[in-house]
Amino acid sequence: MVKKKKKAKKVKKADLTIHFMPYSEIAHEDTIPRIKKLMGLVLESRIVILQGKLRPEEETRLIENSMTLIGNIKGFQGIEIATVSNEGEDHSLFNRIRHNIARILVGEQDAITIIGPATVVKEMKQDPKKIELMLNRR
Amino acid sequence: MIKIIRNFAKRLFSGVFKKRGEVKLGFYGSPNAGKTSLANAICQDWLGEDLGTVSKVPHETREVQVKEKVVLQKDGKKVEFKLIDTPGIATKIDFEDFLKFGLKKKEAQERAKEATQGIIESIKWLDDMDAVIVLIDASINPYSQVNITILGNLAARKIPVLVVANKMDLKKSDIKKVRGAFPEYEVVGISAKTKNNLEEFYEELFKLIKKAK
What we know:
CATH architecture of chain B: 3-Layer(aba) Sandwich
CATH class of chain B: Alpha Beta
Number of domains of chain A: 1
Oligomer: heterodimer
Helix content of chain A: 25-40%
Number of helices of chain A: 3
Shape of chain A: globular
Strand content of chain A: 25-35%
Number of strands of chain B: 6
CATH superfamily of chain B: P-loop containing nucleotide triphosphate hydrolases
Structural class of chain A: alpha+beta
Number of domains of chain B: 1
Radius of gyration of chain B: 18 Å
Largest sheet of chain B: 6 strands, mixed
């Protein structure tokens, strides 16, 4: 009996995509559209590099949203998120006032936020000055 | 109009209850930071009973646990609060992580599902807290986005916070790293497991509850 040799299926691996999002793209959005936009990209397995940062309540909303999707979207395990900013480097009153005025005028642009799906990003190591991304082997 | 009246009534009643001394004290942090261990230590010291179970497996606490009327008395001072232990907040959950701890696939999947719901519940409770203890595992990098997000949310809501660096009984624990990561907060180093330095913690807890009143 001749055994049929099974042809090894070549699984096409999706390319790693990094999406840079300027702050202007979310500057005039409310919380829900902002979260939707970011989650939409993350669900496409993209790593989003956002100029600026989300408000604290938006970060928790993003986490809540991710938790809701785990179990409802096949293979989705949540997100990795990290923010680096120079906020808090100089605690002098003048600099705090200057920073707050800038934030009111142009938003939270003085930071970088990285958001990626946990299936792609294994870990994000961060300290106040840098973020290191450890990716899962594909 | 009804909404405005309802909100006014809610604020009025919450104000009245707050004046009566019912401070809601929340325990927040990442999974396995030692929230339930510390909550148990407090409950053992002042009520003579445990609050919840602790485990090496992450996400052991998957539902908010409340202990009504915890009373602390020290040097003629007395504070009373409602202790609220919350599930650890994480940004990702993979049921396969639980398999490493010997759980069966079905148990692991169920735990993961409950853990996601627990995280949502923890976040929802943030609005109700009068004061919060943020537990940080001092044996690992304290500068995690979960810790930053929790502290950022509490600052935005103007909720008084005490940062507790836990697991100080471990050799690799470093309170300086915790203080360095969050210089704007008061940090107390303890070991909830060995009950080391709980005296200093209780001193700071008195101050925190007073701030919340």
